[in-house]
Amino acid sequence: YRIAVFASGTGSNFQTLVDAGKAGLLGGAKVELLVCDKPNAPVVQRAHDAGVPVHVFTPKSYASREAYEIEIVGQLETLNIELVVLAGYMRLLTTVMVEKYAGRLINIHPSLLPSFPGTNAILQALNYGVKLTGATVHFVDGGMDTGPIIAQQSIEIESNATVESLSQNIHDIERELYPRVVTWFAEGRVRLMDRQVTIISNS
Ligand code: GRF
């Protein structure tokens, strides 16, 4: 089961998925491609170190978002990618990607959606003063963190929490949540109907 990861930054989720795939912990899924819009992002070096092919591009050098997405779709098709996994990819997708990969395109977001969509979700949660937050894996539609929810994991916000400590704690739960969800896909256990997601039991 062949997956591509889209990332723009540090790439800790990318690394987790690469490592889990190599260790046989993703139900047979493997990361076959990194797509990155920032040539100097640390995640690119991680991909090189792991031997994962990279499609890196500079958005400014294209006439439109659709133009670079058409190129990306070409890469995904060449590699027979079955699931597209966004992990800190800091761009909205157009209908080119969203329609082509409908039902096979997921994102992870560092809050309990629908609370705190968009950037700075962790800071938003701290500023609001919620006592629980977490991470959400969801299907991607045309909106900002608005697609059907697949799985969530919550954590408590401690009274002395900072953006740094909470980011660390959320990364820790993401490290477990994202591989679990990718495994469900690889095992063919995720159903999407009328915006409702069901996970088929494997017992
Ligand atoms: C994660 O917190 C994820 O929820 C958000 O972006 C962050 C990416 O972190 N979408 P990393 O690059 O995987 O370390």
Task: Tell me what the structure shows.
The chain has helices spanning 12-22, 42-50, 65-78, 95-100, 121-128, 163-186; strands spanning 2-6, 30-36, 54-56, 83-86, 105-109, 132-139, 149-156, 190-193, 196-199. The protein has 203 residues and is of the alpha/beta class. It has six helices and nine strands. The strands form two sheets. The chain has a seven-stranded mixed sheet with strand order 3-2-1-4-5-6-7, sandwiched between helices. Strands 8-9 form a two-stranded antiparallel ribbon. The protein has a single domain, classed as Rossmann fold (3-Layer(aba) Sandwich), CATH 3.40.50.170. The structure holds 5-O-phosphono-beta-D-ribofuranosylamine. Residues 7, 9-14, 87-88, 108-110, 135, 170, 174 line the site of 5-O-phosphono-beta-D-ribofuranosylamine (GRF).
Quick structural summary:
The chain is α/β, with parallel strands linked by helices and 203 residues long.
DSSP strand tally: 9
Largest sheet: spatial strand order: 3-2-1-4-5-6-7
Structural class: alpha/beta
Number of helices, counting only DSSP H or I runs of 4 residues or more: 6
Straight-line N-to-C gap: 21 Å
Quick tags:
203 residues, Rossmann fold, 7-stranded mixed β-sheet, two-stranded antiparallel sheet, 35% helix, 24% strand, transferase, phosphoribosylglycinamide formyltransferase activity
Please outline the helices and strands.
Elements: E1 2-6, H1 12-22, E2 30-36, H2 42-50, E3 54-56, H3 65-78, E4 83-86, H4 95-100, E5 105-109, H5 121-128, E6 132-139, E7 149-156, H6 163-186, E8 190-193, E9 196-199
Parallel strand pairs: 1-2, 1-4, 2-3, 4-5
Antiparallel strand pairs: 5-6, 6-7, 8-9
Helix pairs in contact: 1-2, 1-6
Enzyme class: transferase
Domain Formyl transferase N-terminal: 2-182
Protein name: Phosphoribosylglycinamide formyltransferase
